[in-house]
Design a protein that fits this description.
Length: about 230
């Protein structure tokens, strides 16, 4: 195979007139195996670009470039960005810099479960399910609220899945409630039950075996009480 002779991305491209070119330059810098000196600082500057597409791309590039401390600074601004696409990107990359997030940062992520944009809330729920938290009480409570009362079913489904991933007993009531929600949520809730145990779990699985949705029934069959941990 011939060697890759493409020129590495340059920092100057971050100043291109077209925002799509600036966003592409930021993404390329994040993916490059060789980066110019000063890349982290330049990408940090790009996270304040006037175009949200550039801000989102620059944040992702900082994370991929392993500029963790710099990425954390950018993340704190992005999670509260006025543009939903940037907030969503911040939620998506949160697990990648989880070790560098401090308790107030995690609270900012939890707050996005109530975001006006359901796609942001969905991304926040996914991220929270992947974080290892020493004190998950606040997170579990917020996820339980989202799982049982968020108006968007996609967010409820993601919150139920996150509760299953965390496996905190305080999240079980919300997961059980998900077993009576819309079909997609019931499917996810039944899978989430694998993280819990007890007579309520066994009863919910037994009911799921007779659910009108065949995928719910299949998930329950795969997680019969005798297979639970």
């Amino acid at each position: 195979m011939a060697p890759d002779r493409r020129s590495p991305p340059t920092l100057a491209a971050l100043d291109a007139p077209d925002p799509l070119d600036r966003a592409a330059a930021a993404a390329a810098l994040g993916l490059a195996s060789r980066r110019p000196r000063g890349t982290a600082a330049a990408l940090l500057g790009a996270t304040a670009d006037r175009d949200p597409r550039v801000r989102a791309a620059a944040l992702g590039a900082l994370v991929r470039a392993h500029a963790r401390s710099t990425a954390r600074r950018a993340w704190r601004a992005a999670i509260a960005d006025p543009d939903a696409s940037v907030r969503r990107r911040a939620a998506e990359v949160a697990p990648a810099i989880a070790a560098h997030l401090e308790p107030p940062d995690r609270e900012r992520l939890v707050a996005r479960l109530a975001d006006d944009d359901p796609f942001v809330a969905d991304a926040a729920a996914h991220a929270l399910g992947e974080l290892s938290l020493d004190d998950a009480a606040e997170t579990v409570a917020a996820l339980a609220t989202a799982a049982t009362s968020h108006p968007d079913p996609l967010v409820r489904e993601s919150a139920v899945a996150a509760l299953g991933a965390l496996g905190d007993p305080a999240g079980l009531p919300a997961v059980l409630a998900g077993c009576t929600d819309k079909p997609a949520i019931r499917r996810r809730a039944v899978v989430a039950l694998a993280a819990f145990e007890g007579p309520e779990v066994e009863a919910a699985l037994q009911r799921a075996l007779e659910d009108r949705d065949w995928q719910v029934r299949q998930n329950a069959e795969d997680l019969r009480p005798d297979q639970l941990r």
